[in-house]
Amino acid sequence: MSFEVILPFLRPIEHLILDQDISEIMVNGSSRVFIERRGQLEEVPGVSVEEKTLQVAVKNIARRLGDEINDERPILDSRLPDGSRVAAMFPPCSIGGTTLTIRKFAAKLFTADELLRIGSLSPEALEILRAAIIDRKNILISGGTSTGKTTLLNALVSFIDVGDRIVVIEDTAELHLEQPNVVRFEARREQPGSPAVTIRDLVKATLRHRPDRILLGEVRGAEAFDLLQALNTGHSGTLATIHANNARQSITRLASCVLQSDVQLPFHAIRSSIADSVHLLLQIERRNGRRVVSEVVELERYDPDKDRFEFRVLYRVNERRETAHANAVAV
Q: What is the torsion angle, in degrees rounded to the nearest 10, for the CA atoms of residue 114, residue 120, residue 126 and residue 129?
């Protein structure tokens, strides 16, 4: 960890930052502090940070990280050297006082077998995903914030052939790969004297570096169009993550991201391109504090006459962890 960068400014919550069982600390103004411990949110009684102290701390943290937050720029979104996230908001945008959220980078890397052991993956889902990666299927992993999308992606990479050349594209480096032929690209925010390097820039550049596999840490915007272009020109076996509430919504979200590129294509053409490019949809979510792969769906085709995708459910877990297989559905 690299919390020594910020600890001098946050002594009232130092013990929370150093507690390895706590994955996230949320300071809701000066009066209330909440944490996430083992997937569960809880309030920390008797802990508070005075508003003036909190504002000074956030400003110092921003400077230490090469960033800035003030009345003109009331939003901070920064990273510690180890990848942990520090987000803050100043009044009046944050009505109840300065808000600070620290999301720790997960130092422990879970293998697929470990995810199986703790119940995040079932044996059946694991075998489906193993076969899909070996068969070079393009897989979109979807889920909400802090559901473990990156952890799952990192675990699944172990099924990629060691002879493949892998190009990893991330907003901030989080993935850790053991394969020998790995190239890592990381986006850069605009800085004084240095223009931004976006995820879209990196996706475009990736194709000139002979990737056998592309791993995209998260699809957020216009880079979705360039990713589809890559998938449609022979770059199979790609894995990417995206924010969505369920597997089918991930396709709608992907289409919306493509539109951000200002590409002059009809919407049905974009949806058809997605159906040609993406083979498997994988949903991960939280259930009772546990991160669980809840659904694996095959994207079969796009029907332009009915303007809908057709899916086949390969695996699904319900609240009782029962599964359903090969159920044909269309939306």
A: -120
Separation of alpha carbons 22 and 194, rounded Å: 36
CA distance 288 to 1: 28
Amino acid at residue number 145: T
The H-or-E segment that residue 17 falls in is helix 14-18
How far apart (Å, rounded) are the C-alpha atoms in residues 314 and 317?
A: 11
Taking the mean position of all CA atoms in its chain, how far away is CA 133? 19
Tell me the domains of the chain and their CATH numbers. Answer: 3-103 (3.30.450.90), 112-330 (3.40.50.300)
* Structure confidence by residue, pLDDT tens digits, 12-58: 898 998 898 898 999 998 779 999 887 788 999 988 888 988 999 89
Tokens of 117: 């052991």
Residue range 193-225, pLDDT digits in tens: 788 899 999 999 998 999 999 999 899 999 999
Q: How far is CA 66 from CA 11, 33, 85, 161, in A?
A: 21, 26, 14, 39
Beta strand 99-103 with 85-89: parallel, antiparallel or unpaired?
antiparallel
Longest dimension (CA), the chain: 62
